[in-house]
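Hello K.,

You asked for the raw outputs rather than the summary table, so here they are, unedited. I folded two proteins back to back in the same session to keep the settings identical. This is the first:
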Amino acid sequence: MSRSTNLVLLGSTGSIGVQALDVVARLRRAGKAFRVVGLSAHTNHELLAEQIEAVRPRVVSLATGEGARWLRDRFPDVQVLEGDGGPAELAALEEVDVVVNAIVGAVGLAATLAALSRGRTVALANKESLVIGGPLVRAALERHGGRLIPVDSEHSALFQCLDAGRKGDVRRLILTASGGPFLNLDPAARASATAEDAFRHPTWSMGRRITVDSATLVNKAFEVIEAHILFDVSYDRVSVVIHPESIVHSLVEFCDGSILAQAATPDMRIPIQYALTYPERVDTGLPRLDVAALGCLEFRRLDEEQFPAFATVLAAALAGGSALVAVNAADEVLVGRFLHGDIVYGDLAIGLAITLDRWRTEVADDGRPLDLLTVESADRWARSIAAGLRFDHR
């Protein structure tokens, strides 16, 4: 009998984490041997407790001390780590085979590096690991021989389509974007939209930050950067098209003019499972895509004037150095302010542009090799800038 695959799930109480545990349960019912040895959450100790009851991990991590103490009292047989370093410690556990990194935000980078430094397979849903730490992740992969398997539906789609041809035959990677809830809204209404408006995403059910980033297309710009790093394809060969139905998740164009697309229902459990079982495919037990019932699928060119934040993020990518670190940190702060009603939708793109402009004049470290100290310094600098920005809403 084959040995169980030992998993650590980071960000277990978030949207991807909850769906990943559902996938593990489904795989177990299908006779696949998966064992969850570690879970991490940020502050939601009550949901984490329910997950502990369900999968009985050996170690868990929580950012807050009060919640960690509550868990220790309730589960004396479970080791409970606390603080921001907990996820990286879980990722480095000796018996772990696969680390599912579903943490949201820059804090996920340390855990990705910890897993890769030990040659682990990382099922990556934490896009910030590549957006702000791409060179560090590449170096860890080259030095220690770990593996990255993308969990994002778009990159999972590219990963699958690229299996059909040689790397040298690839002409272009094409990511699809739904366009979010404001795609057909007039500019004035879009600029004053609130968080409640942004949560009405037409096709996906996601976490709070990623839902807002999908509305601004910041998330899609991050995905362009991820594709560039994951598949070693230059930025001018990665494009985005608007596809409101979110049925086709990405496409690959080859040099002979052939285009391969991956299509599936918009359910994140499909790419999550593929990342866990690769290269094997297992019946998910989920609803199938009824192609005959789809009717027409729509594709449009991306209008960057309609989504100015998209262009700002890609400008930061081309600027190099810690520019992406700064823009990502500013986005985290600005989205938080948006969620609390402090700013409106239109301020998000403005704030990112201001942060990048100030980075060019006040930091501009594009000639310096990226390291963790540079990442941490730029992150702190940009958070301070974004927190202090004031916007004229007259």
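The second followed immediately with the same parameters:
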Amino acid sequence: MPTCAALIVAAGRGSRFGGSLPKQYAPLRGENVLRRTLRAFASHPGVQRVVVAIHPDDQAIFNATAAGLPKVSSVHGGAQRQDSVRLGLEALAAEAPDLVLIHDGARPMISAALIDRVIAGLSGADGILPAVPVIDTLKRVDGDRIGETVPRENLVRAQTPQGFRFPAILAAHRALAGESLTDDAAVLERAGKTVKIVRGDEANIKVTTMDDLARLEGTLGETRIGQGFDVHKFGHGDGVWLCGLKVAHTQGLVGHSDADVALHAATDAILGAIGAGDIGQHFPPSDPKWKGAASHQFLRHAYDLLLARGGSLTHLDFTIICERPKVGPHRAAMVASVAKILGLEEGRISVKATTTEGLGFTGRQEGIAAQAVATVRV
């Protein structure tokens, strides 16, 4: 099996990006852009080493970015991209891998499947370029006027990682140093070698501007699941609160607040999904402020925390466990109640009920239990 190294180009300053950091170090959903890129290659079983060409001023931030990732080392890049690639290749020359994949550090959405396709393509070529078809109509312009329409047949958009047989691309870069060619496939082409294409990936976006970063953030939402469980015992009263609805019963539920066991479980489910503790931390029963409080306040608080983190609630599923009162006749009203509290369509709320066949404290009708599962996207 051929040996394969990855060379990640990350020495640019990103003048078009405009942020306080070079684009490759911009935060992206909890990790910076470059770390996401490095993780994809460092975790790939077909890649034995990852060398990153960085700007000399970025050594400290790079060290923090690459911390804990296997196979990764750095080399200082040059003034132009082509210089950085050549210096990275020279750093690999002593071990001379069979293959090298050259990738833009600001393309963090690289998939294992695309890496596989590039490596596989090199079995029959000196160079491989992943490409996606041009689907928009192309125009050549003269100032602010259309000059001509450019036929898009046989045109593709080039991506990275571009793969090469290592001796061929090293020799080409040495021979053509200082040419400022736009990508490494062009370097190999100028050296008289043939570059073939494999199918690219539309998701493999290169971050060039702040808009690109915002677009990626919009696609990187993470789905999380949170669960909650609560119990309240029966006591004096003429009804129980379930899902924000008072249901007539011969007893009430005992609790510091209104003891809405279902909303308490749902509150914990949402808090759990976003790692924000539990209901007792936010509304301690020792605080007289919450004596007899309506539990819809608790649920709404948890939901507002989710929204503040840029999240959304995909689905909220309740299971109420009791012998009495019967939940079935009130299920639709409970769904409508929760939907109103959260301002969501009813299709995102589910209320179910079950018994324990006379077993346990719920079977003995000593209290009610409830479970809730919240599916959120953050």
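The domain at 223-377 is CATH 3.30.1330.50 (60s Ribosomal Protein L30; Chain: A;).

Happy to rerun anything if the numbers look odd on your end.

Regards,
P.
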